[in-house]
Every structure is written in C-alpha cells, then in structure tokens.
Design brief:
261 residues; alpha+beta; nine-stranded mixed β-sheet; 9 strands
Length: 261
Amino acid sequence: MHFAHLIVPLQTIMRYFITFSYDGGRYHGWQIQPNGDSVQARLQEALSTLLREDICVTGAGRTDTGVHARMMVAHFDTLTMDNGQWTMEDLAYKLNRLLPQDIAVQKVERVSDEMHARFSAKSRMYRYYIHTAKDPFCRAYSCEIHYPLDFGKMNEAARLLLAYEDFGAFCKSGADVKTTLCEVMRAEWVQTSPSTWYFEIRANRFLRNMVRAVVGTLIDVGRGRLSLEDFKKVIERKKRTEAGESMPGHALFLEDIVYGL
C-alpha cells in the first residue's frame, strides 16, 4: 500500500518585519485598547484578513495617544508566506490598499527567527516640534509657544542628559517598568526656520511619556524657571513631580529605529 498521497508538506513558521508610518491623531496610541481605536489593532486586522490566519504584531515600542511615527517597525509570524502565495512586495501593496489613509506600509521583509521588533532595536529617535509664531500649517503637528525661550540654555541642559542613565524623573507616574535606566546618545534643539524648531533625542530605550516630560522640563529652563543646576537636581532626585509638564502629544514623532541587521 502506498501512502505518498497522504504526506502533508511541512510548513515553517517565518518571521517578518514590517516598516510603516502613521498619523496618530485619531488613535489611542499604538497599543490595542479596550475602548479605543489603535494602530496595532488596525494593522493586525489587515494582516489577518489578507493572510487568512490570526496574526499578532509586536511593535518596536509604544506611542501614546495622538503621537505620530514616520518610522515604526513591528514583527509578525506566519505560515502563509511559506506557501508561495504571497511575495513581500505583494503584501505591502495589498496592506496599503486595505489600511486607512493615515497608516502607510513602506516594506515587508523576512528576518531571522531571533529578530524582535522591540528587543533587537539598538536605538530609537524622536523629534518634538514647536513653532513660535502662529502658523495654520503647523498647528496639527507642532506645538505653538509664544513666550521667549533661550535655546542656548536649553541645549546646555539637553547635553546634560548624556551624562545620566536613570531617568525616573521623566517617567509617567504609575508606569509599569522594571527599570528607569536609559542610554541617551543625542539630545539637541535644532532650528529649521526663524520660528520653527525641533528637539531631537536618541536613546537605546524610552520610558513612558519620557520625551514629552523632558521637553517640558527643557522649556522651563528656556523660560528661566529652572537653572542648569536645577535641571541636574530634577534628574538626580528622580521624582516626576519635580520635572516639567508633559507636552501635548500631537507634536511628537517617532522618526527612526536602528537595528543591527
């Protein structure tokens, strides 16, 4: 008796990275929420529909409500791509047809099973945008500020961040984190026009709400409310109540993620 016709080809679970961007204005952040729309939910729904299996995506990080990403990376595992039905270019194209206009996929790529969108990332870079004159074309993606700011002092304070590793002062109260240690590699205010600036910060990891709290505290330095010594004390005391206010989320962008690919 021959059983060759009963042999089922062995399928292999494969891991893929998906690189995409999104306007976070109408989402309750990246992570799936019980009572709000999220980017993760939209991406999972689209992948599951196309691949006809339950897909779970893991992001490189979590952006809060209203925060945007010019570059976000997530990984997912699937059997479907192994059968030759899809190419990675096809999947990216179909995803863009299915996803809403405020989420755009740039590429899908096969990676090794050991790669992890979050834990394999070497660094992430955010920018926080502000403008100092009323501008109808900036208002949706930049924070309007009208009081005078000393950007020289703000950059002096920003450089101090590179000398520290514990940023508990800028972590949202009650956040579920095992450690508040981060390695900040770059922190600088950059002027792009007479009335527009952005704060750029790169680190190996970020705490919840960290960038917006850092920006709020640096603005207190720029307004003369905090001296450089005061700023150092805020970091060293590690108390969120001593740092500045958390700035609005609509002006914050996740801009870049680096992997050791």
